[in-house]
Amino acid sequence: MKEAGAARTALVWSGVAIALGVPLAIAATSPLLAWREPVYIAAGLAGVAGLCLLLLQPLLAGRMLPGLRVRHARSLHRLIGVLLVVTVIVHVAGLWLTSPPDVVDALLLRSPTPFSLWGVIAMWAVIGAATLAASRRRMGTFAWRAGHLALAGVTVAGTVAHALLIEGTMGTVSKAVLCGLVVLTTARVFFKATRVGKA
Amino acid sequence: MPDTVLTRRALLVSGATLIVAGGTGFSVPSRAADLAATPTMRGGANNYRPGAPIVARIGNGGFLMTGSVRRAGDGAPLAGRRIQMWAHTTEGHERDERSHGATLSADDGTFQLDMPQIVPAFGQAHGHLAYDAEHDDGGFETVFLRPVMSSANDTTLHVEFVLRPA
Questions:
Q1: Which residues constitute the domain of residue A140?
Q2: Tell me: the pLDDT tens digits for B52-111?
Q3: Is B42 in contact with A105 (Cβ distance < 8 A)?
Q4: Yes or no, beta carbons of A99 and B125 under 8 Å apart
Q5: What is the CATH number of the domain that holds A71?
Q6: Per-residue DSSP letters for B31-96?
Q7: What is the pLDDT of residues A119-157, one digit of tens each?
Q8: Count of A–B CB contacts within 8 Å?
Q9: Architecture label for domain B32-163
Q10: How many independent structural domains does chain A possess?
């Protein structure tokens, strides 16, 4: 029993490491980087890092990572939530420095590229989810859970659409696999949360 | 039975005919007299640096931007119109001065300019082109375009300007 549990723990954690490490490594060695200034490179990689962190959030919220105590999973979820907001800020600020009019167009919802709109939707949703988390104590349990879950769902949908429509430094296949995992794990959290709510 | 009755078959046939005709824009090639002006595209003017010099080539070249300049309405080719272009390339960002250059259209209204290879930036491999009335004496309205390449591997891009007299 104990060995089986240890094997499962090792399997899940190495799976997560591969799911995050491979797309990150491919993006970090993209040939496009040769033609970009450091600020633009940092902005792009912050976006990739944000997508990677986004996979950890439902895994932690849904207790899908074996070998982690509930208390630890919670504080990790909180810490990664903060990091997620930081990556979004670095992403947008770096893009702004690289090409101000493109980012202004995106933020004013008049960009010619649809993925910009999805990115801006995801940005506001993740800021909303983090703001709710920060003011959790002043809210009722139901409002907090429903609000945070809904905003997290919009964050995931917006981010995945944003990432998939972009031709950038990420590899097509590793990006699609990572996005698929983010959607699946988020869906699992939604399913479990709504089932508990009905009982 | 009145002969004006609308049968289901007639409705389907006429509906389908309308959709097909509408979809193809009732295309009649000889209607050049109605040639519509090219509208400015969203984001077309982003990172524009007005008045870039007319050059034989931007940077080291390797990517060929081609196109044509015509007059709205009759479609007459417009010679000597100044077209400026810029992009994120293997040699610089869109904002960089070295990424900008301009050329003049030939007698037949066509233009071409050798520039560095365009590479994907801000999510798409795309170029920017401008006909700026402020830097041209032709008397046409300013147009900014932002064409997207069908593949990042393309080494050429063709862009058509149809200008409206100011």
A1: 2-198
A2: 999 999 999 999 999 999 999 999 999 999 999 999 999 999 999 999 999 999 999 999
A3: yes
A4: no
A5: 1.20.120
A6: -GGGBPPPPPPTTTTTT--TTPPB-SBSTT--EEEEEEEEETBT--B--S-EEEEEE-BTTB-TTS
A7: 999 999 999 999 999 999 888 989 999 999 999 999 999
A8: 57
A9: Sandwich (2.60)
A10: 1
